[in-house]
Amino acid sequence: MSTFRIIAGREMKLALRNRSVIITALIFAVWFPVMSGVGIASGAGGDAAVIAGGIAAIVLPVGVFMGYLFCADAFLREKRDGTIETLLCTPVSLRHLWEGKVAGVTVPAYLTTLLSAAVTITAVSTLAGVPVAVGPLLIAHLAIVVPVWIAAAAGLIGAAQLALGMRENQILGFVFIFGFIFIIIGLQGIAPGGAGISPATEGILAAAGAALLVLARFIAGKVTRERIVLTIP
Amino acid sequence: MHDFIRSCGWTRTARRHEGASGVNAVEVRNLSRSFDGRDILSDVSFTVGHGEIFGYLGPNGAGKTTTIRILLGLLAPGAGDVRVLGRDLAADDDARARVGVLFENNGLSDRMSAVDNLTYYAGLYGVDDPAERIDDLLALVGLADRQNDPVGTFSTGMKRRLGIVRAILHRPDIVFFDEPSSGLDPGAQRMVRDLILELSRREEMTVFLNSHHLDEVQRICTSVAILAGGRIRAFDSVAHLTGASDRPVVTIALADRNDSARASETIARLPFVAGCETDGNSLHCTLADPGAAPDLIAALVGAGYRIEEVRRSSRSLEEIYLEYVGRTEGTP
Fold first, then answer.
1. Is residue B281 located within the same domain as residue B231?
2. Integer CA distances (angstroms), B222 to A204, B8, B167, B171, in order
3. What is the complex's ipTM, to 2 decimals?
4. What does the pLDDT read at residue B13?
5. Which domain holds residue A201?
6. What count of CB pairs under 8 Å joins A to B?
7. Are residues B18 and B163 in the same domain?
8. Residue A156: pLDDT band with limits 50, 70, 90
9. Has residue B326 been placed in a domain?
10. What is the pLDDT of residues A159-197, one digit of tens each?
11. What pLDDT, on a 0 to 100 scale, did the predictor assign at position B148?
């Protein structure tokens, strides 16, 4: 088995055993879609494209938040407990360690986001009184755009958590979340097609997500063992 | 005595324990490192031969952990050169597979079972037949019946034993133990000490032991370095430092304090004396020939010196440690 799969598998196992994170993720996966479903149903006026766009717009920030939530367990806890120092002494490169952890964070975050999407679709259908047509664009959004953004968020936040001290991380955690949400809203605003879901919107979001993932990998490559060790509390 | 010990201990230890390839397990040459303009390590040099159990001693803040981190490639040296098994661990991922390490936190996840933790590390190190190896080691440390329990339910001593298993799981050539007895009760300390000793013999590993427990170091280590104020104050075999070696130290107290300097010069000319230091009316003489103490006394008496007391020195490591550390702390 490759070290990538070993590290990713371990992070997934740990995520599933972290009750507080799982409960927080499930509450957020259910509460946030139900609350936002009210707004989508009342604002869409039965327009299927606008409804799909609203759902897509809600699911993406949820995914980013899930990435942040699971990151705290995979990166920050490892640093707070000091176990990262032992991991840095294994014959695994820092980049491989980061990649495995990002994958291990992305999978549970993606699964809870899919649950959240299902709850959102159900809530909007119920509140709008019309069934939501899950078209190919919404499927592409859920299957491609969302996981790429979750991985990008987990990658950037994870790299920052490795590089920064605990106090900076406490402050910057929410800065990252709001930064991501601001980027998402900004991209949706500049994309042609208005509030509805469109190929252009999905293309822009997918490209931006991929660019952020590449940026995250680049930044993670700049983090040094020394930097990590010197910021262990 | 400090300079003498350093000079003779250096070559002796290095020559005796070099591996077949002629490379020491650890080589530190003129290592310096500072943080925020403050010197943590200054011109530190020592070697550890293959198969040795090496004790790295020093007070809090002396730079022990910084040294270990530099050796493990976690921190960059400010100046100087370090090699572990002849390699630079910072730049060589594969070389790290031959090195084990146990930090104070054990490197274990509390939420995973003992066997899951070990399986994870076995995967990272590419251990062949990990299940058998894990079963064998867990039985050895008395944790076989708890292997499926979360590590969070273990006592501190059990976690430390599991941490030791994790550190040697991949059959490393050298293992770094950073304060392995820290936070343990005396019974657990003894268990950990015996475990390190047994495993180092069984697995034929070199052990680098960073410890505050001088009794522990004296019992299990073959050689030591004492670090204080960022500098190596003593580096030699434990036997030689404590006077229980083939170069014993004899302390002679002269009746007249004023004779010390002249007597020291007389002694220095004797062929069976390797070195001599004066301390008030006392002369600390290191013999090149272990059976030469009567000849030394005869030579002094023959030269007209009045001897008040003669004793063969056999000091504890704690006394030696306090002497060096105290000397450093007393120096501005």
1. no
2. 65, 16, 21, 21
3. 0.89
4. 35
5. 3-230
6. 72
7. yes
8. very high
9. no
10. 999 999 888 888 877 788 888 888 988 887 787 766 567
11. 96
* B46 domain-assigned: yes
Name the residue range of residue B57's domain. 2-240
Q: For residue A83, give the nearest of B69, B95, B105 by CB distance.
A: B105
Instruction: Write out pLDDT tens, residues A41-60.
Output: 777 666 777 788 888 888 99
| Token pair 């002094």: residue | B300
Q: Does A2 touch chain B (CB under 8 A)?
A: no
Helix (H) / strand (E) element for B31: namely: strand B26-35
Say whether residue B90 is in contact with chain A using an 8 A CB cutoff: yes
Q: What are the beta bridge partners of residue B178?
A: B210
Low pLDDT (below 50) residues in chain B:
1-17, 19-20, 330-332
| C-alpha closest to that of A228 among A172, A167, A165, A155 | A165
Shortest Cα–Cα distance, B323 to chain A (Å): 32
Q: How many domains does chain B have?
A: 2
Give me the pLDDT at residue B288, please: 83
Q: Same structural domain for residues B270 and B145?
A: no
Q: Is the dihedral of CA B204, B206, B210, B215 positive or negative?
A: positive
Q: What is the DSSP letter of A72?
A: I
Minimal CA separation from A90 to chain B, in Å? 6
Q: B219 and B305 in one domain?
A: no
Exposure string for A158-187, b = 16+ CB within 10 A, e = fewer: bbbbbbbeeeebeeebeebbeebeebbeeb
Q: Any CB–CB contact under 8 A between A87 and chain B?
A: yes
Which of the listed residues B240, B259, B277 is the one where a domain comes to its end? Answer: B240
Tens of pLDDT, residue by residue over B6-46, are 333 333 333 334 544 567 999 999 999 999 889 999 999 99
Q: Is B232 helix (H, G, I), strand (E, B) or coil?
A: strand
Q: Which two tokens stand for residue B105?
A: 């936190």
Residues of B in contact with A227 (CB under 8 A): none
Strands B206-210 and B53-57, sheet pairing: parallel
